[in-house]
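Dear Dr. H.,

I hope your travels went smoothly. While you were away I took the liberty of generating a structure for the chain from your last submission, since the lab meeting agenda had it listed for discussion. I wanted you to have the full record in hand beforehand rather than looking at slides cold. The sequence, exactly as received, is reproduced here:
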Amino acid sequence: MFDLSTLTRRSIGVALVGCAFLAPAAMGAGDTEDVAMGIRLAELLRAGRSVLSNYQTLINDPALGDKHLDSERFASEAIAVYSKNTGQDPFSGELTNRDRRLLEAQIGAMREVVDEQQDDINRAGIGFKGFVPAVFARLLNEKFAAKVGNEALVRVTAPEQLVRNRKSLPDAWEASIIVSVFSDPKRAKGEAYTDVTEVEGRPAFRMLLPEYYTESCLSCHGEPKGEIDITGYPKEGGKAGDLGGAISIVLFK
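The corresponding predicted structure, in token form, is as follows:
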């Protein structure tokens, strides 16, 4: 195990919409590449969730059969959202072979998830299908891990009291950052946290990017607290701007 006192710990200010980051002058080239790649993976995940969120009304329309929302259309729109949010194509710039491989795996996993949901998406006579952004993200990240889990992992977690699926419970490292770092009122909102530590016995770059409730989240996660939402879970009583989760990135060394 690494001696934690010798590990590199840096807080990187991230403009999550513009996909820019402010890095301390002491950060080495390798660290810069890992931070940039972590942001790309997080933003591509967010783009896919955004596309799915925008199509919830269509997906849950019981009067329609074929929604014409196939995997190619979905992936193309996710890439377009990514490009709009970040100002660049996910494959732009000088990418290492690893980085290109990870992005291709994430987009491939995205297509596979949507392909496998086609029967439910296109099922007429049924309203709510349960194919919500949180489910999409979990399935996407599981497929990504199956493809390139020896090189990288992506998951969405949250403060333990907000976790609905036990698969999304934070690990010890994630929980410590959520509790001790993201809760610090002096910390700039939206600032990601990075670390170099061990994961599964291997040295790894870790990045945790906080996520906050928006108004669109509150139909399921807002008030009144305890009321059952459309997915069958009690609402958390959250408000817009509250910490609602975090995207966790692991890049193995």
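Two observations you may find useful: Strands lie at 9-15, 20-22, 152-157, 192-199, 202-212, 243-252. The chain has one domain: 4-252.

With kind regards,
E. W.
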